[in-house]
Amino acid sequence: MKAMILAAGLGTRLRPLTNTVPKPLLPVGGVPLIVWNLLLLKQHGFHDVVINLHHLGPMIEQALGSGSKFGLRLIYSREPVILGTGGGIKQAEGYFANEAVLVLNGDTLFDLDVSALCAFHRERKAVATLVVREDPDAAQWGLVEVGEEDRIVRITGKGVPDPVPIKPRMFAGVHILHPRLLRGVPKGVVSSIIDPYVGAIMRGETVLGYDLTGYWSDVGTPERYAQTERDVMAGRIRLDDRQAASG
Q1: What structural domains and CATH numbers belong to the chain?
Q2: Do residues 153 and 147 make contact, with C-beta atoms less than 8 angstroms apart?
Q3: What is the pTM of this model?
């Protein structure tokens, strides 16, 4: 399975920090945020990682290079015009060799057994699996409704009617998809990957939710960035675990 890290965003909520440094390179515990996720991927046996670039993209490419220092092969998908999650993944689909791809948000720090997630996706023969989590503000993040047998029935109110009790969740920014879901996504056009997921749900395909119970932080605002730094200092998430396993 290939992996992709979405790193093209403008980081507007973290300005002025992101005026001169792309958000994926902001240090967390003294290490760039994106490196935390690269080490997690290496820890779980990934070798090839696609990274999409737009805002200050050359700085990311210069900092990470070929990926050899992390034991990875990095491939860069450059976006002269930012394409969003759907358009960005669509542009990179040629690298996936028609195999499932694990996608991570470049501005999210989390603790997850990625190997267990991939096994869950394969064993359940899902066309897509979204990592979700309980959150009292799930509706503000974008409500994901999970029904029986972990099947997602609606995302932000779009999907299928389902009278059975559902679990309200929020999307954690980690997902696995089969590239065939990208067939209807226009190339070179801004779009959201959520639209193909909703389409698959409405066709009755298997789109699953996988609960994340470990640490998670969207490093998207100055307040959350500061809190994430405190969490690292407190040992709520540890870089050395990833370094040891990846080393």
Answers
A1: 2-239 (3.90.550.10)
A2: yes
A3: 0.91
